Every structure is written in C-alpha cells, then in structure tokens.
Amino acid sequence: MATSIMGVSQATTNQCEEFLRNINSNAPYLANIYKKYCDIYGIKLEIAWVQMCLETNFLRYSDTSITTLDMHNYAGLGAVDGNGRRQALKFNTEEKGVECHIQHLFAYCSKNSLPQGQKLIDPRFKYVDRGCAINVEDLGGGKWASDKQYANKLLDLLGRLMNTKTEKKGDNVMKIGLRGGHSPNCKGASGYLDEQSCVRELYYKLKPLLEAQGHTVIDCNSNASSVSGELSEGTNKCNSAGCDLYIPLHMNASNGQGNGVECWTYNSNSSTANAIGNRICSNLASLGLQNRGVKHNTGYHDTRAVKGQTCLIEILFCDNKHDSDIWRNAGINKIASLIASAICNKTINTNSSNGNSTPSKPTAVVTASALNIREKKSTSSKILGVLPSGKLVEVYKVEGDWVHIYYPPHGGFISKQYVKLYNIPNSMVQNPSKPVEKKEEKKMDIILYFGETDEYCAGMLRYELKLPVLSLRDFKANPNLKNNTGKVYMVGGSEKPVSNTILITGNKRMDTAQAVVNYIKNIK
C-alpha cells in the first residue's frame, strides 16, 4: 500500500525531536515549526521530518555537502549535483527555511492552490510538475531526487521514526513560554488598572499552577526599553527553549469603549492554541466579561515569530470600569486558576486540597506580602534578598522554624511561618528550634534599581546599607510589597515608588554610578 504525503499527522513533535536527537543531540529544535506548516498545508509531519533528516544527514550535514546549517535549507532546495559548497538556496530564518521546504513538497503532492493566507516564497515552485508525487514512493527516480533508492531510504527512516518511544511525562504535558506582558521600561496600556503591573503579577500566580500540572514553564519576560526589543526577547527565549506553546499575557484598552476577553492565534490551523483560547474566553466570560472569542492574525510578531503555537490573551480592557471591577472583585488568584484550567483542560483551584495545583518537588510558596531571605537562621542576620508574595522557591531542607532554600550563590533561609510547604519528605526536616520572632512582615527599607544597567550601582549601595535589593519591575509586579516597605533608595530612573523615596540617579549610566558614589561618601 502506497504511503501518501498528505493527510493527518501520526507522529508527535516530541517523537520527532527524540528521533532526531538519538542521532544528533546538538540539533536545533525544529519540530514545532514543521508541525505548524504541515498543519497549514495538510502534509503529514512525519513525512516532511524524515525527508529533512535524509537531506541534511540529521542536521549534521558534512564537510562536502552543498548546504550548511546556517543556510536554513532543510531539503537541498536549489542544490544540483556538481554545485560547489553553499551554491543553493539560503534563508534568513529557520522558519522561512521550513516553510519553503513544506511549500516545495506541497507542489509535488498537490495540484491545489496555496492555502488561504499563504504567500509563494519558493522560487522553484514554478518548475515543479504539480501533483506528480502524491505518495512517498513517487519521490525518487528523477522527480524530487535522481536516486532510485530515495523513496526506500525515506520509508526506512519513517519506520524508525514511528517506532521511536518518547518518555511519558503525562497527558498533554507541554513546554510553555509564558510572558507577563510588557517590559516595565516600555509600559503598556493603563486606565483603571495598570496593564504591566497587573499581568506581571498574574504571571507569578499562573506559573506555579502550570508547573504543578507537570508543564515546564519558561520565563519569557523582558526588561527591554522598546516594543520591538521586548517582543523579540520574548519570542527568542521561547524559541531557544523549544516551547510547544507561547502565552503572552496582556490587557486591552480602547478609550473606555471596548470590553471583554479575547485571544489571538496565528490562524485557524493553530489547533492547540485555538482550543486553549476558546476555553480561556469561556472561563473568563463566566466572571461577567464579554466573550470576544478567538481571533487570528498572521502579522502579529508574537503569533508569527514562534516555532510552536501562540495563544495571546487579552484578559480585559483595563480602561473599562466594568472590566476592571471584575478583575478586582474576582481576585487575581481566581483569574489565574481559570486561565490555568483552560490551558490544562481540567479544573484547577488555587485553594485546592486534593494536590492538583501543588508543585511536584520540594518547594515553598510565599504567603506573606514580602519575605526576607536571610544569610543565617536569625531575624537579625544579613538580608540577602526579598521574595514577593506567591513566589515559588525550591527547598533544600527544613531546619526547625527556618526553611533552607536554593538562592544563588550559596543558599539562604526564610521563615517557615510565612510560606506554604509542598512535598517535603521527613528526611528533609530537622527538629524545631526556638520559635521565630514574628518580624518578617514589618515595614522594611529597600533598594530598588530601574534597569539592568543600574543593578551594579544598586549592589554598591547594598554593600554599604546592608539592605535587600530588588528591581523596580519586580517591585511593581507585586503591589503588596508597597504596603510592606518603609524607605526606598531608588537607583536610576526618575520614579518615586513610595512617598519616602530617596532618588539617586543621573542623566546617563555613569552619572548614576557617580551619584551612588557621592551618596555613599556623604553617609560615611
């Protein structure tokens, strides 16, 4: 029986990556891109994947091959016997290279027009005898390749691919790139709510809920100072990690006129993202928001620049009073649980007692407004840093009334009274010591820095003042910190996040550094 090239894919992206990495462990992650365009063109993922592996020697190429990895040419397009090295088509990105491969294969196996919304990018498309190879068996003997054994080689690889076993991590477990909206240095919308601070706080609530279900969550947040910079940083982090799904969190604005929740995906073929988006809209609409549904846009950077699929969430309109009241009345924990439930396709409660939303390894979740990380097991010990409310940290050991956590470079201690512990085996618990003084939630002074270039200057000040240091971004992402803060030493920028703020800044980076040096001299 012939093996058709078009049809429903049987192989999974994980299976494809595992098959490739059994041969080349250093190969770039391409399966999600291949899945994206195979779905659009109706081509079986497994056929295109084994063809790529055959044409590129499992992305290892060779010293004598015409194409090279940096050319992003995964099917030998434009390479003719006798050509010199690199005398073939070259593409600027992995995505363009994959799309051109799929489009060229589509020319061989179908006489149909390009799918709606797709542009012709294959310069050799016009030279193909359309529909001349609808089956794998038709590709050799002078059609796709002159090698008479070409089809047999593909079929052999196909059999090996379909027999590849992947580690079972649970049903529908994904690697998810999560981004809490805009950079604090490039603010988003505002109105009754501030988009940037709200969605960044939501990020910290949503991340542990997804991780508790076995998903791997990649931090795709950005501190860039331009829209293009933050967009690129987010998708680059997502792609570098080989994420299956990218979820940017946002809020809409429309001069107070718009209202409701909507999600954006690449197109109607983004099956996973569309299903998740529909569930998100339905879940959040249950709070009283208008359900604006799932919409498609192939031009948005966040939908077109990722290798996997994107479901961009516009939670509500932050300049609409009705929507903003729903945010406040429902509470961020409820909203996080509804989004997590939609992504995981199961009910997840933030206050669940059945363990469904708890982490799977020894961890602690901060329950206080803010929690100091101490160098030693004492409230008078040096403060190494501050954990915001809802922060999840990995536990090394529970030592009496203190929790020893992983905190670079040498670890630190937090009060057990202000965290919720999960999955702590008896072997990690030592006998209790004397009760801890309840001083952790008293107002504290803190050093904040504006941008990454100001972090070093903040460290200079920390050495003198012996105070915790936090970025302004993280401070704003956790509004409860403001109520727990006394004096703020603000390094860089021009903002005064609390009334009792000492602003130490300059027009340029070196000016800020000099301002910090001068301040230190004055307090000595």
Automatic annotation (TrEMBL):
GO terms for molecular function: amidase activity; N-acetylmuramoyl-L-alanine amidase activity. InterPro entries: MGlyc_endo_b_GlcNAc-like_dom, MurNAc-LAA_cat, N-acetylmuramoyl_amidase_3, SH3-like_bac-type. Gene3D superfamilies: 3.40.50.12090, SH3 Domains, Zn-dependent exopeptidases. GO terms for cellular component: outer membrane-bounded periplasmic space. It comes from the Bacteria. One of its GO terms (biological process) is cell wall organization. Transmembrane segments: none annotated. Keywords: Cell wall biogenesis/degradation, Hydrolase. This is Cell wall binding repeat 2-containing protein (Precursor). It comes from Clostridium botulinum B str. Osaka05.
